[in-house]
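Justification of resources, computational component.

The compute hours requested in this renewal are based largely on the per-chain cost of generating structure records like the one below. Each record pairs the submitted sequence with a full structure-token output. That output is archived, and it is also reused by downstream analysis tasks.
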Amino acid sequence: MQAEYDLASGLRGKYSRRYQRGANVVMLEPDVAKAFPNTNAVNDSLRALARIIQRQGKALAGKM
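The structure output for this chain reads:
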């Protein structure tokens, strides 16, 4: 750890319950992060994309 990190005022275990329930941390590239103003925007976009992928999968399965 580098000397400039001051964790003296930190709170141990602040997010431990959240991580026990399950967490999936994803690091966005800077250019992608600029497109999304907040967590809700990211989640809404991913849900919409997931619906499109599911519809495409069903459409392709129907053609086989």
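Residues 5 and 11 are 14 Å apart (CA to CA). The chain is about 55% helix and 0% strand.
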